[in-house]
Amino acid sequence: MCTRRLSDEGQRKLIAAGTPRRWAPGQILIREYDTTDHVVLIISGKVKISSAASSGRQVMLALRGPGDLLGETAAIDGDARSATVTALTDVEAVTLTAPDFLRFLTTTPSVAVELLKIVLSRLRESTRRRLEGGAYDVPTRTALLLLDYALEYGDENNGTITVRMRQVDLADAAGASREAVAKALRIFRDAGAVRTNRGRFEVLRMDVLRRYAEALT
Predict the structure, then answer these.
(1) Residue 201 burial (10 A CB sphere; 0-12, 13-18, 19+)
(2) Integer distance in angstroms from the first to the last C-alpha of the chain?
(3) Backbone dihedral region for residue 199 (phi beyond 0: left; psi -120 to 50: alpha; all else: beta)
């Protein structure tokens, strides 16, 4: 089981306890610094997690998709939201208020254990991203991110995996300038590994992209 998201059984139990919600592309599910405390379980669709930089610009931190649970930290500790969650596509989800979520965890210990594993997995992911930012060059970080996003959140069709995100968001996630990431993407395009379009990337050859990541690390 992928420890980044709830198991199928965990999702079924949480869906049964939650309230259905829908968001259109561009709508905000959770806003940074808000004092709301509900949790969101994504059933379908993709969202991006972002945080405000000192300049005020929203910097993308991660992608999330079906099976991912959002907002659980604020529901547990009662603190303000630490990031903004924005719909990239049409999103179907269920929500629970903090009191309902906490009661659910106490009566469903198997899901509580899953949640602990998810939190630990995200901590490891954050640590790995920081390590990559300091140890690898921009093409390496870009290749690693595209591989990760394609495997976890890509939509596959006839061997092509589409990752829906903007180039500026990919640059934010890589901790690099948009120009540096554009140069890396040009290398991958010339090798036939990716195709770029407005608002999305198409991974054509995972094996070629993986060789770039492995060769450069």
Answers:
(1) buried
(2) 27
(3) left
Task: Give the C-alpha separation, 53 to 109, whole Å.
Answer: 37
User: Strand pairing partners for 196?
Assistant: 201
Instruction: Give the mean model confidence (pLDDT) for residues 149-153.
Output: 88
Tell me the mean pLDDT in the region 136-144: 87
* Structural domains of the chain ordered from first start: 8-132 (2.60.120.10), 136-214 (1.10.10.10)
Give CA–CA dist 41/66, Å, rounded: 8
Tell me, what's the pLDDT at 211? 87
Burial of 216 (0-12, 13-18, 19+ CB in 10 A): middle
Is the pLDDT at 99 greater than 90? The verdict is yes
Per-residue pLDDT reduced to its tens digit, 3-21: 678 889 999 999 999 999 9
Task: Write out the two tokens for 37.
Answer: 């405390």
Taking the whole predicted model, whether its pTM rises above 0.90 is answered as no
- Cα distances from 172 to residues 98, 135, 145, 153, 163, in angstroms, run 31, 17, 11, 17, 15
What is the structure's pLDDT at 217? 43
State both tokens at 171.
């640059």
Strands (E), 34-143: 39-44, 47-52, 58-64, 69-70, 84-87, 91-96
Q: Residue 2 CA to chain centroid, in angstroms?
A: 14
Asked whether the beta carbons of 89 and 25 are under 8 A apart, the reply is yes
Taking CA 57 as the corner, what is the angle to CA 54 and CA 61, rounded to the nearest 5 degrees? 90
